[in-house]
Every structure is written in structure tokens, then in C-alpha cells.
């Protein structure tokens, strides 16, 4: 036995060295983008999750962009990942939906919401591409241009009343969001475990709401989204209560947090830039009508600038379903690509003085190829126009009817989200 020990040890050393080598140099038929795969197994997950307390792009992205350029590799939560801040590559990827890349959620997120959109997994066990199609149809058919942010959306979807309902949905959603990039292990005490339990509570709450509504006589229903869904259910047996609960969960999680945090960020920026605020006030003297909205040149410039600087959706995730070749790099199949518009919107290469809040930079055109706050291609945010309309109305009301001052707070960015630490405290009072 003793005689074989040196052989066993040598074998272990060689196998471990080879494993580490393979970890650092993943197999690829061409040239992978530069970058570091970090430590075996955990990769660079820890560095990725460290928040930055500034309005600038997340530190994780900034330091790597400076070192490696706009496209780089890393490893996060057990996955091989390419991060792209290159607008050309991002626009290329938006056009490659379902050809070379597909929608992807971090493993923790898919496990949390019991949803895998991946064709590799055969679509989701129960939902898959159907989830996406139903989701979009329901959104565009029903929400039209009236819904707003979290509680407004919840009210519109299923007549949720935050004042009367004992379940404080918003607080629960915030907790779930904090666990979106975590290792998907269901061990008590971990953020994932807690988020998993809260997610189940929310789904049960939503399923219960659907069940209760079913018992209400048709003539007494509220005409909200649930009522429409109950009609669909009569003719389509695939639409179950759980399916709808998951769709609503997706709506609330996907849109409302981004819009609310971008708007909060905008209020802070306006307070810090009195010249912009004054110009908005001058523009907003008349009553707001549809024609007025369409011609709100400066307001639209302010909205663009809020979306550019706030960048509430810091990551759009895709998985390669085929090898992707771009600008001399090869990205193998089954890698995750994290598209971060912040890396473009806050880069001096694409915007002069990117941290300066300057709506006038949009005076000649409100669009350009380096501006993608709502993503692009077939997955582009269906709430984009709605968000801009709501922002326009809210800004108009705020600057004409109210004054506000920021009492304290800080901007906290992670590589995925825009947040405000303990919250931003503001006082808002009506103008006399
Ligand atoms: C500042 C506000 C918002 C920003 C920056 C934003 C951004 C985005 C982005 C980048 C995507 C694409 C994700 C991807 O390609 O994987 C997306 C998708 C989506 N957004 Fe928004 N969004 C905002 C507001 C909203 C609002 C208010 C709603 C609804 C009330 C909404 C509903 C959705 C939905 C349902 C999707 C999924 C679309 C799909 O899967 O095809 N968004 N959003």
C-alpha cells in the first residue's frame, strides 16, 4: 500500500493541475475574449456581487473593461460567462435571438421562478417558449398604456390594494431580487433558501387571488387582467392557475423595479441639476395633452438622459445555442453572455463626460446605436413606450405641481441592479 502512495499522490497532483489549467483555459475552437475565470468553482462571483456606491458603472465591469477591453470572459455562479459592453456586439446579439443565442436566466433565478426558457432543457418542464409568448401577448393586449410601476401594475393585473392587503408584495419582491445571482443551493440560512420560500409565498398568494376571483359571480368581476385570464382558461386548458401566477410574478419582477429605481434616480439628478429642472419647469407651463406629450422635446431629452445615466437593467442575459464568432473572438456553445448597457452608456468612448447629467446631448436625435436601455430585437422591453409616457406625465406633474428635496441616501450599483441602500429620503410638498 505504502509503495503505491507516491503514485496516487502524483496522479492527484497531475489531475488537479490539469483541472485548474482547464478551468483557466476553457476549451474553445478559436480565440476566447480576454479575461480571468477566477478561482475554480466560484470563479469571480464574489467580486461580481460587491456593490459600488457611486453613479458610475459597476466597479467589476469598469476595472475589467479598462484591463481587457469591451468584451471579456469570466465565471459567475458556476457558469462560463462573456460580458459585453460593446454596442456593436450587443446589437448583433439582439438580432441573433433564437438563431445563435437564446434568453437565459441565472440558474438561481430559473430555479426560483420554476422556469427554464432553455431549449437545451427541452423548454421548461411546464412552460418554456409558451411562457414567453403568452407573457408578451397578455402584456401587449391588456396593459396597453396605462399600467404603472409595481403597485400600479399589481393593481391593474389583479386589483391589488397595498393599503388593504395584508401581504406586502413589494417588500417580498425586494428580497427575492437580492438573491437573483446566488448559488442555487437550498440550504437554510442562504439568501437563495429565503428567496425560494418567499417566492413560493408570492405564488401561493397569487394563486389564491385567482381562486377567490373564480368564485366571484361574473357580473361582479372587476374587469382587470385576472378576469381576462379566467376567460382564456375556459378555452385553453394549458393555462393553469400556477402558470398565471408565474406570469404575473414575471411582470412585476421584470418591469416595475426598473422603472421605479430609474425614476428615483431621475429625481435625484434633477435636484442636483437646477438648470435642467428650471428648463423643465419652463417647458411644462401648459396643460398636458397627447399633442403636448408628443412635442415635449426637452422632457423627452431628460427622460433619455435619466435612462442613460440610471441604467436600471444592468444585465441582459443570453445563452449561446451555437458557437458565436465576432470581431475575431469565438464564444463556444452553452456559454452565458451578459450584455450590460451601462458599460456603453457610461463609457467616455461613447458619451462625452458620461457622468454629467446633460439632457441637451439628445437635442439632435433621441436615438443612436449606442443607446439601448430597453434591450433590442424580438425581446425588446414591451414596457418601453409605456415607461416613457409615465415618466413624461410624472415629470410634468412633479415640476409643475410639487417641489421636493433630497434628505439623504446613496446610489448603490451592483453588476445587475441599481439600488439605493437604505433608500432615498425625500420630502415632497405641493406648490402653493
Ligand atoms: C425604466 C424602465 C424599464 C427598463 C429600463 C426596462 C428594460 C427592459 C429590458 C432591457 C428588457 C429586455 C430583457 C431581455 O432582453 O432579456 C425588458 C423586458 C421586459 N420588460 Fe422592461 N424595462 C422597464 C420597464 C418596464 C415596465 C414598466 C414593464 C411593465 C409594466 C416592463 C415589462 C417588461 C417585460 C414583460 C419584459 C419581458 C419581455 C420579453 O420577455 O419578451 N418593463 N425590460
From TrEMBL:
Protein keywords: Heme, Iron, Membrane, Metal-binding, Monooxygenase, Oxidoreductase, Transmembrane, Transmembrane helix
GO molecular function terms listed in the Swiss-Prot or TrEMBL record: heme binding; iron ion binding; monooxygenase activity; oxidoreductase activity, acting on paired donors, with incorporation or reduction of molecular oxygen
A GO cellular-component term linked to this record: membrane
Residues the entry annotates as binding heme: 381
Keyword hit for Transcription: no
GO biological process: brassinosteroid biosynthetic process; brassinosteroid homeostasis; sterol metabolic process
InterPro entries per record: Cyt_P450, Cyt_P450_CS, Cyt_P450_E_grp-I, Cyt_P450_sf
Keyword Iron: yes
Top-level taxon of origin: Eukaryota
Subcellular location: Membrane
Names of required cofactors: heme
Any Pfam family: p450
Membrane topology: Single-pass membrane protein
Transmembrane segments: 6-21, 243-270
Family affiliation: Belongs to the cytochrome P450 family.
Name of this chain's protein: Cytochrome P450
Amino acid at each position: 500500500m505504502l509503495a503505491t502512495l507516491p503514485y496516487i499522490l502524483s496522479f492527484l497532483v497531475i489531475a488537479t493541475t490539469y483541472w485548474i489549467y482547464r478551468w483557466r483555459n476553457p476549451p474553445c475552437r478559436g480565440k476566447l475574449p480576454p479575461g480571468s475565470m477566477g478561482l475554480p468553482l466560484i470563479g469571480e462571483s464574489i467580486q461580481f456581487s460587491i456593490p459600488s456606491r457611486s453613479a458610475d458603472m459597476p466597479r467589476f465591469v469598469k476595472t475589467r473593461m479598462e484591463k481587457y477591453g469591451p468584451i471579456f470572459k469570466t465565471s459567475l455562479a458556476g457558469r462560463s460567462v462573456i460580458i459585453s459592453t460593446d454596442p456593436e456586439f450587443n446589437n448583433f446579439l439582439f438580432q441573433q435571438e433564437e438563431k445563435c443565442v437564446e434568453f437565459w436566466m441565472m440558474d438561481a433565478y430559473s430555479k426560483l421562478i420554476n422556469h427554464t426558457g432553455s431549449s437545451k432543457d427541452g423548454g421548461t418542464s411546464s412552460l418554456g417558449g409558451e411562457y414567453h409568448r403568452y407573457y408578451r401577448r397578455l402584456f401587449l393586449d391588456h396593459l396597453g398604456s396605462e399600467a404603472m410601476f409595481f403597485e400600479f401594475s399589481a393593481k391593474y393585473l389583479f386589483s391589488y390594494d397595498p393599503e388593504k392587503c395584508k401581504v406586502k408584495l413589494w417588500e417580498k419582491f425586494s428580497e427575492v431580487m437580492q438573491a437573483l445571482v446566488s448559488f442555487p443551493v437550498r440550504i437554510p440560512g442562504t439568501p437563495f433558501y429565503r428567496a425560494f420560500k418567499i417566492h413560493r409565498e408570492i405564488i401561493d398568494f397569487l394563486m389564491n387571488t385567482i381562486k377567490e376571483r373564480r368564485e366571484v359571480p361574473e357580473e361582479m368581476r372587476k374587469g382587470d387582467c385576472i378576469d381576462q385570464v379566467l376567460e382564456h382558461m375556459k378555452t385553453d386548458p394549458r393555462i393553469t392557475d400556477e402558470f398565471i401566477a408565474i406570469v404575473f410574478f414575471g411582470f412585476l419582477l421584470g418591469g416595475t423595479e426598473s422603472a421605479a429605481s430609474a425614476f428615483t434616480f431621475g429625481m435625484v439628478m434633477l435636484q442636483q441639476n437646477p438648470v435642467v429642472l428650471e428648463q423643465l419647469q419652463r417647458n411644462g407651463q401648459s396643460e398636458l395633452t397627447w399633442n403636448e406629450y408628443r412635442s415635449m422635446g426637452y422632457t423627452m431629452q431628460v427622460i433619455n438622459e435619466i435612462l442613460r445615466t440610471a441604467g436600471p437593467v444592468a444585465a441582459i442575459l443570453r445563452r449561446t445555442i451555437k458557437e458565436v464568432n465576432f470581431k475575431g473572438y469565438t464564444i463556444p456553445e452553452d456559454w452565458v453572455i451578459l450584455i450590460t448597457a451601462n458599460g456603453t452608456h457610461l463609457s467616455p468612448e461613447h458619451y462625452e463626460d458620461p457622468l454629467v447629467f446633460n439632457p441637451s446631448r439628445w437635442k439632435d436625435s433621441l436615438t443612436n446605436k449606442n443607446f439601448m436601455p430597453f434591450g433590442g430585437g424580438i425581446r425588446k422591453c414591451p414596457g418601453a413606450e409605456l415607461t416613457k409616457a409615465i415618466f413624461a406625465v410624472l415629470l410634468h406633474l412633479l415640476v409643475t405641481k410639487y417641489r421636493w428635496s433630497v434628505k439623504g441616501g446613496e446610489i448603490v450599483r451592483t453588476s445587475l441592479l441599481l439600488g439605493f441602500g437604505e433608500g432615498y429620503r425625500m420630502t415632497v410638498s405641493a406648490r402653493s
